[in-house]
Amino acid sequence: MSFEQTLNRGYCHRIQKTRRRRRELRAAQDNFGQRPKDNFGQRPKDNFVKQKILILAIATATTTLSCKATDNQSCQDTCSVGQVCDTSLGICVDEPRDGFEGDIPGRSVQLATANGKVFVAMVDPVGRRVVAGELTPESSTLHELGVSSSAQSKVVIRVSNTRVYVAWLATNGAYRFASREFATPNANWAIEEIELPDNTYEGSEEFDFVVGEEVGVYVAFQTRDRRLSLLSRDNATNAFRLEQVDDGSPSSNGIACPDSLRSTEAPAGIGVNPSIALNQAGIAIAYQDADCGDLRLARRAVDGFSVDVVDTGSLDGEPIPGRRGRVGKYASARYEPDSGRLFIAYLDETRARVMLAITNDSGGYDLEVVDRGDTLDSFARQRKDLVGSFITLSFGPRDEPSISHMNTTKTTIRFSQRPSGGGLWFHQTIADEGVVGFSASHVYADQIGLVSAAERLVPAEGGFASELEVIWP
Questions:
Q1: Phi and psi torsions of 388, nearest 5°
Q2: Are 289 and 311 in contact (CB under 8 A)?
Q3: In terms of CB atoms within 10 Å, which of 30, 289, 321, 358 comes out highest?
Q4: Long-range pairs for 200-204 at CB < 8 Å and ≥24 separation?
Q5: How far is CA 24 from CA 18, 33, 113, 194, in A?
Q6: Handedness of CA 442, 153, 342, 215 (dihedral sign)
Q7: H/E element holding 261?
Q8: How does pLDDT run across 428-448, given as a tens digit for each residue?
């Protein structure tokens, strides 16, 4: 709402209150048939004069600020997405969001944290409703924000210094995001649809969303022609623009995808599972080239984006492999707080293990194995589990890299961590009862510690139902 609308709304409320008071006085006087009289039985003229002045003042204010006399008014302009027409004022206002009731679902769950608060977003697969709000160990405050494109839709939740944001793909193929001030109790959610001034786009479920106080809003997504593009809004212009990030051309570090892999009848394309990292140096996007099975990284350059192939999953140990594996799925990219180095956690599908790539001073990447999936059964025999689905990377209180992911063999949540300076990775299972671990996510919340969440599937009529699993310290 603009300043002018806010000013107008305030005036209109005061004028409407005056009108109601005047009607009440008139009704009281008419009902009792007596208004105060002087000693000669005449009604005081000064009251009549005051009423005329009041009416004149109201009429003047109404004309100046466009407050109509009718109780129901239509809005001159069509209200934006997430707004409704306030017919008492004739202006568009943020639509109040319904509170979410019932069992809390866990589909596509993600967590975020700021100022010791834990925020959550997920999809209710029954009604495709996007649900978000705040969690505590004792309770939750959740609201319905909109309808997603499918029951399997992805949602992304992020925080800035003052607001919490939730993004999703709407049924019309456009991205929407909701935001609210988290420091203000009962603050309403404002919803915005990403629109382009001179051309259109069609989004997909392969996307990531970030927002910064200084840099604006970014959405990296795979287009319908299987390329990676970026929607961005500069805070100075407040307008979105669309640019291509990666069309599959040979990378800057000389590693190309063979035409035999790229030119298939049904290419999976570039830009699968994109993950955006932001810092003072700019934007970086990690993602999978699903045609070749490579992990790729795009970083802002002077004339667009510079793209590197980070890992090919080489089966012969060579940077430019004769035999490729499949890596890069579930990429999760973050900048290390102190050093500014970029960390990318991802799945090595060929070997069913979790990997970590770290930028180094020579402009290359150091690769290390995080979790091979080696476990012991009840007889202390070593077993190989399939690990590395739904990866989330973060940094702990001492900048130690921390990764949560799903053990799909046992359907459990796995958590891996090592010291910030390097060393051995330590692993633990943090939820192992029933079918759990889908969309595994975690945050380190101030004054709380490690909080993890995932989707749990529970038996229900006709199959399974989605429930939210949250693990508090």
A1: 105, 10
A2: no
A3: 289
A4: 201/173, 201/174, 201/229, 201/231, 201/242, 202/173, 203/169, 203/173, 203/174, 203/175, 204/169
A5: 10, 14, 50, 47
A6: negative
A7: helix 259-262
A8: 999 999 999 999 999 999 999
Residue 388 and residue 348 in contact, taking contact as beta carbons nearer than 8 Å = yes
45's CB contacts (< 8 A; 6+ apart) are none
Alpha helices (runs of H) in 1-141, residue ranges in sequence order: 3-32, 45-65
The whole-number pLDDT of residue 81 equals 82
- Cα-atom radius of gyration of the chain, to the nearest Å? 29
| pLDDT level of residue 74 (50, 70, 90 thresholds) | confident
What's the pLDDT score for residue 55? Answer: 38
Contact 332, 275 (CB under 8 A): yes
Helix (H, G, I), strand (E, B) or coil at 146: strand
For residue 426, list its beta bridge partners: 417
Tokens 């609308």 belong to residue: 5
Residue 146 to residue 166: CA distance in whole angstroms: 11
Q: What is the pLDDT averaged over residues 353-367?
A: 95
Residues 284, 298: Cα–Cα separation, whole Å = 6
Enter the tokens of residue 222: 């795979």
Which tokens hold the place of 261? 């892999």
Q: With cut-offs at 50, 70 and 90, classify the pLDDT of residue 378.
A: confident
**Tokens 């689905």 -> residue:** 389
Enclosing H/E stretch for 129:
strand 129-135
Q: CB of 135 within 8 A of CB of 470? A: yes
Question: Two tokens at 26?
Answer: 């008139």
Query: What is the C-alpha separation between 287 and 273, in angstroms, rounded?
Result: 6
Per-residue pLDDT tens digits for 202-242 = 999 999 999 976 668 999 999 999 999 999 987 777 889 99
Report the alpha-carbon angle 294-297-301, nearest 5.
145
pLDDT tops 80 at residue 3: no
The span from the CA of 374 to the CA of 362, in Å, is 33
